[in-house]
Amino acid sequence: MARIGASVYTSHVPAIGAAMDLGKTHEPYWQKVFSGYEFSRQWMKQHVPDVIFLVYNDHATSFSLEVIPTFAIGTAAEFAVADEGWGPRPVPKVIGHPELASHIAQSVIQDDFDLTIVNKMDVDHGLTVPLSLLFGPVDAWPCRVIPFAVNVVQYPVPSGRRCFMLGQAIRRAIESFDEPLNVQVWGTGGMSHQLQGPRAGLINKAWDNRFLDRLIADPAGLAQVPHIEYVREAGSEGIELVMWLIARGAMSDVAAGAGATPPKVAHRFYHVPASNTAVGHLILEN
Ligand code: DHB
Ligand code: FE
């Protein structure tokens, strides 16, 4: 059977991708950001999975405001790279895993979560920046990736509670796939940031770090936090953090229930600023 070895969490700031693509990573400003991923790139070399189930949000790149799926699973064989702002990044195309993705869709939908099945979609910085941060510049991504897009752009967006429950259903789905695949579940986006309006530039270090503490040790409690708290405390784009609860819900201690030992924290990093965003990053091992 397939199993989930670890979960990885990271912000997805587009300027981080541009810094890599334009050769600026050694500038002092960016060095402080990338230093937090040096351990992670070594760790990834030892822990390359067969498949990454990558939870991210599309930024009106693949889904316009005409069609807005709440949860969309990419079932295609491959996904082209596209973006807003700086345009498509010069990074490899993403190779999917249609068999596992279809199995997850089957299992999760039968488990009462309504997913949109997407047989063709482009992926933007929400997906490619986390891959670049963890793998560095590469000619081909070292594993397959199932893109899982969550609407955190246009309200109403899903609650943290629903995301956490969905993560648990995704775990059941992965563990019932009849091939010995090593899978990682990644939760991306965040941390605190607001790109628009009078509060543009908002960062909340104390709230972010408490989010990291609770994500590790009290995810079920954290899942009860309502939208309004994310928006008030972490800014309008801080709501991207609900996606981290999908990955956290897929960890084995959640399946084991109350009293289970929390996952091993292989790495934790927090830094301000990167563009308009606080960068947070965790690696949790099952
Ligand atoms: C920035 C952050 C985001 O999450 C995003 O999608 C676009 C821009 C920023 O910090 O500039
Ligand atoms: Fe974003």
Structure description:
The chain has 286 residues and is of the alpha/beta class. The chain has one domain (3-285): Protocatechuate 4,5-dioxygenase, Chain B (3-Layer(aba) Sandwich). Helices cover 35% and strands 21% of the residues. It has 11 helices and 10 strands. The protein has an 8-stranded mixed sheet with strand order 6-3-7-2-8-1-10-9, with helices on both faces. α4 (98-110) crosses α6 (160-175). The radius of gyration is 17 Å and the shape is globular. The structure holds 3,4-dihydroxybenzoic acid and fe (iii) ion. Residues 12-15, 59, 193, 195, 237, 275-277 line the site of 3,4-dihydroxybenzoic acid (DHB).
Bound molecules: 3,4-dihydroxybenzoic acid, fe (iii) ion
Low-confidence stretches: none
Distance between the termini: 16 Å
Mean pLDDT: 97
CATH topology: Protocatechuate 4,5-dioxygenase, Chain B
Residues in helix, % = 25-40%
Find the structural class using helix and strand composition: alpha/beta
SSE string: EHHHEEEEHEHEHEHHHHHEE
How many domains make up the 3D coordinates?
1
What labels describe this entry?
35% helix; binds fe (iii) ion; binds 3,4-dihydroxybenzoic acid; eight-stranded mixed sheet; two-stranded antiparallel sheet; 286 residues; alpha/beta; Protocatechuate 4,5-dioxygenase, Chain B
